User: What shape does this take?
Amino acid sequence: MPRKPVSKKGSTQKIMDVLINRENGWLKVNESERKRIFSFCDHYRNFLSDVKTERQANRRGIDLAEKNGFKNLNYFIDQKKRLSPGDKVYVTISDKTLILVAIGKNSLESGMRIIGGHTDSPRLDLKPRPLYEDGEMGLLDTHYYGGIKKYQWVTIPLALHGVVSKKNGDQISISIGENSSDPVFNITDLLPHLGKDQAGKKLNEGISGEGLNVLFASIPQKNKEAGERIKLNAMELLYQTYGIVEDDLVSAELELVPAGPARDSGIDRSMILGYGQDDRVSVYTGLQALLHQKKIPAATSVCILTDKEEIGSVGSTGMYSFLFENVMAEIINLTTRDYSDLILRRCLKNSKMLSADVNALHDPNYPEVSSPNNNMAKLNHGLILTKYVGARGKSGSNDAHAEYLAELRKIFDDANVIWQTGEIGKVDQGGGGTIAFMMARYEMDVVDCGIGLLSMHAPWEISGKLDIYMAYKGYKAFYDS
Ligand code: MN
Ligand code: MN
Assistant: This one.
């Protein structure tokens, strides 16, 4: 049976309003909000320049949390101190994944508000035996991490960050290439004059994974007896500066990332060009939304900054592990009289989550891959709600519920958040995944909700300042809901 038509006076005006809503966000913000956008993004740009790895994101997150009254959960566990509304705690897992929890007024059983982003970004990792000599040069062998377009990583200045763990338990931090007085590193490419064969290859074959070898040194040691004298000289420098020998590199995590700071981009300074915005733009906005919370929230607020998303969220610091359940079990144990598995399950099931990850923006250089008819997210059109990701018929996607999306529309509209919808490109073009489906296993409502990027996964990614600020504003409104 067809439904009777609903006739309402003034409905044309409402329809017009919705159309007007699809304007560039800059046309909708007033002068004071415009100032807040630029000032917020100055801080974000500095954060992005300082934080180049998952460990650095974790460290910075802890520093900011402690400054804002968060305590390590271990303190409560060790002291057998109970947690009550207003208490703020954090848990750090292997220096890579960080979970912040602000205990709300409502019981944990009634659910939490969770925002989850990831701290890891695509990069080049050193192999366990990285250093070798070839063609009278000292080189570093790498294995790339995450989905990169390999040709983008040659000829750009690279910085080396990470840790070396020694057998005696000492850990040495290394960070070379960010200060203007530091040396940087580089992967060479063929000159076009000799690039005929290379130019005939497919784009994804022109530079191979095993071809990503970093030029590291070129001065030989003077000792004529020694073999591989350039490598030896480089190892000597590493020993003198960091006290490490070649075998120590076996127990190291050293990452090559684009060197140098993030920058304002565009003559109007409306954008940010920087490395690792997937997903540190969500890390920063989610973190700030929680840290700027003024009142004790009704529902407990949680910010998850997880590792390993770019390689499938596996590993003990990835969202596919039981880390979140373990943390919540500890917290429930400190908030309730009688811990039970049922409380934990209800707490997770009744929670609502925004999976804060980046999405693709419409790129006029590649319009052929965009989802048509206003279904592709646009730069400066605000925070993106992505109902589903996945590929080939939404496969592997969480596909959020209509009811949950309606709730979020209301939360964002009530808080004057500029938001839009998005899809990862047109149907059957490709696709992607986030941590949303892993959290949905607990039966909680979760949807992808993040910022759009141009050149995602490239050494330098572009984001829009208005979109960044709207994410922060939206995340705050979500915590307060
Ligand atoms: Mn991501
Ligand atoms: Mn990614």
